[in-house]
Amino acid sequence: MSEQTVVLDRDAMRRTLVRIAHEIVEKNPPTTALAAEANPAPGFAIVGIHRRGAVLAQRLQRLTSELTGADVAIGSVDISFYRDDLATRQSAPVVRSTQLDFPLDGRTIVIVDDVLYTGRTVRAAIDVLFDYGRPARVQLAALIDRGHRELPIRPDYVGKNLPTAVHQHVRVLVQELDGAEEVVIESNEQRVADRATPAAGGN
């Protein structure tokens, strides 16, 4: 088994998302026009990047809806065909559906990603958004910012800044997909060694 370091456990993940939700609401107060409506809705929407970013987005949507007292719009984006390495990938991408069932024009969109690394995933997600509409602004929430940026992208909301080495790997585990709730860091070399060992995990 590979050596892993848990950097966020279940309770820490929950507290972190609650904090991010408060920061999102504080930074995006209702506009005068929206507040004047009979059924005001927040002027921002939460959009998660598949897969774990979409799960985290659903949790932030519930939290921000509770804080604002109105249903916050929720969506998800699949970036499979927007990646800048699509032509060089050895395997075909696993395609999931993009769901943006609300108007983007004039709205603040908060993109949610689990781990912010080079910034290329977020760039692809922004490209998806602008194929569907023209948001007034786009913000970024990342549970983990591990550094090593290759594009000029900076999160507006960060759960935890986690300095890492390039040879390390950060994994976000969520109950809905993994049956566990934690953020772990491990070495890529050890992960390769584990996969090459037939006895490991019985696979």
How would you describe this structure to a colleague?
The chain has helices at residues 10-27, 32-35, 52-68, 120-132, 175-178, 188-196; strands at 4-8, 44-49, 73-77, 108-116, 137-145, 157-161, 168-173, 182-187. It has a five-stranded parallel beta sheet. Strands 1-8-7 form a three-stranded antiparallel beta sheet. The model is unreliable at 32-36 and 194-203 (pLDDT under 50). The chain is of the alpha/beta class. Helix 1 packs across helix 3 (52-68). The protein is globular and about 45 Å long. Helix 3 links the parallel strand 2 and strand 3 (73-77). Helix content is 32%, strand content 25%. It is built from six helices and eight strands; from the N terminus they run E-H-H-E-H-E-E-H-E-E-E-H-E-H.
Short description:
This protein is α/β, with parallel strands linked by helices.
Features:
single chain, 203 residues, alpha/beta, three-stranded antiparallel sheet
The unreliable regions are 32-36, 194-203
Based on DSSP secondary structure assignment, what is the total number of beta strands? 8
Give the helix/strand class.
alpha/beta
Tertiary shape? globular
What oligomeric state do these chains adopt?
Answer: single chain
Q: Could you give the order of the helices and strands?
A: EHHEHEEHEEEHEH
How are the elements arranged and paired?
Layout: E1 4-8, H1 10-27, H2 32-35, E2 44-49, H3 52-68, E3 73-77, E4 108-116, H4 120-132, E5 137-145, E6 157-161, E7 168-173, H5 175-178, E8 182-187, H6 188-196
Parallel strand pairs: 2-3, 2-4, 4-5, 5-6
Antiparallel strand pairs: 1-8, 7-8
Helix pairs in contact: 1-3
